Amino acid sequence: MTSYRRWTLRTENTSYTVRLSADGPWAELDAWGPLGVEHGPSALDWSRRTHFITPADAAPAEYLPYGLRPFTGAELVAARPGEERGVWWDFDGAEEGEGTLRLAFTDAVLGLRTVLCYETVPDTDVILRWTELTGMEELRLERFDSAAVNIPVTGAARLTYLAGQWSQEFQRTQLDLSRGTFSMSSLQGVPGHAYAPWLAVQDSDAEAAYGVALEWPGNWHITAEAEPGGAVRVRAGRVPHEGAVRLVPGDTLVTPRLACAFSPDGLDGLSRVWHRYERHLAGARLHRPRKVLYNSWEATGFDVDAAGQLELAKAAADIGVELFVVDDGWFTGRADDTGGLGDWYPDPAAFPQGFDRFVEDVRALDLDFGLWIEPEAVSPKSRLYAEHPDWVYRIGDRPARLVRNQLLLDLGRTDVQDFVIGTLDRLLTAYDISYLKWDMNRPPTERGRPGTERADRLDLDAGHVTGYLRVLDHLRAAHPAVTVEGCAGGGGRIDHATLARTDVVWPSDNTAPLDRLSIQYGFLHAHAPHVMSSWVTDAPGVFDPRPRSLAFRFVNAMCGVLGIGADLRAWTGEQQAEAARWIARYKEVRQIIHEGEARLLGTPEDSTCGVQYDAPDAGTTVVAALSTGRLDGAPLVPGRPDRLRLRGLDPDARYRDNAAGTTYSGVHLLHYGVPFSWSAHHDAELVVLTRQ
Ligand code: GLA
Question: For this protein, what is any one GO molecular function term (predicted)?
Answer without folding.
Answer: alpha-galactosidase activity
